[in-house]
Amino acid sequence: MKIVIIGNSVAAINAIEAIREKDKVSEIEVISDESYMAYSHPLLPNLVIGNISRSDKRFYYRSKDFYDKMNVKRVLGKKVVKIFSKNKYIALENNEKIEYDKLLITCGGTPFVPPMKGADLKEGVHTLTNIKAADKLKKDLPNIKKCVVIGGGLIGSKVAEKLAKYGIKVTLVELMKRVLFPVLDDTAADYVHKELKKDKVKLILEDSVVEIRGDKRPTEVVLSSGKTIDTDGVVVAVGVRPNLDFTKDSDIETNRGIVVDDYMQTNINNIYAAGDVAEAYDVIISAKRPVPVLPLAARQGRIAGLNIAESNIKYNGGFPMNSMSIGKVEFISMGIVDSEELEILKIEKDNEYRKFLIDNNRLVGMILVGNVERAGIFNWMIQNKFDVSWIKDTFLNSDFGWKYFDKAFRVLRLNRKIK
Q: Does residue 322 contact residue 310 with C-beta atoms inside 8 Å?
């Protein structure tokens, strides 16, 4: 049997490991338009300013000999342009055809650049979603004294922090009323605002860039409010969209992402999808949608791999979860972070903020700022729709942990794996 994987992502490597647990002999071939091992996208801002290098082991998800150990063939630096599901082969941009028996799509997302005049300037306008983009921005740093970062999400906030610490005058423009919307609420985001301002990042909220002006490279940007900002560099970090380009004109069902069932299989038999490109079940909203977060990509990849190897393992769904540090502020958020309808428990003291959102005695969301050590417990509660009616009053205690649970329950929880 020949298994082909499109995309060399964290979902792909977890799928490979899962397949090899069950199947030592089938041929596995990974195809990627990048020429690198699977690497950490959250570390790209660090790569840009030199906090980490491509020779650093921390930058990669597995060791250099991973593919050889797993007996995986790699076709790198080549782009897939079309899938022919009826004939069971894929076409590459050089007209090469690769046949498969089973196919897994883990190609992630592509950067979204909103429509604005000047976004196509040849120099000085950057995105930051892969190594090639990081290399381009790093090479351009000597030419950038002032930079406008468009978008205050996870990538935008982090790159703004890193560029400011590098010595560049940074202005961060965000359409919403806070950065990291909808990852954090107003209170939690204010911690991040303060840290960014400490690094001398200028925040412009509830506004957007409508034009980038310049001849060869940017000289200023124009905001929807009419204001202008002088700049010689722009980083567009508005977000990413599932990479669906090569699924066009195929029989694969897509919506916002590639639609998959409970076993990570698409509507086409023996074609699977996992990670940021997939539209899978979200346990919070009880519907399918893309949830582009690293832990879910890894879990989906593993389940897809097991099912490719005929294990028949169900994906029980996931939910948004994000963790990051900006300056001295570390946070983790999961599920729903803001609501006027749900029961809310929250406390703020000693540079810590804890917030929990509860629906009919089921935890459906939380934010931890500062003390994040017990996040795994809350993750488990959300995933398993655990009845918190008898313990929720202890959530606001900074020492909350398994010690608050009955001993018999702790033994049950800690001594068996819960899928």
A: no
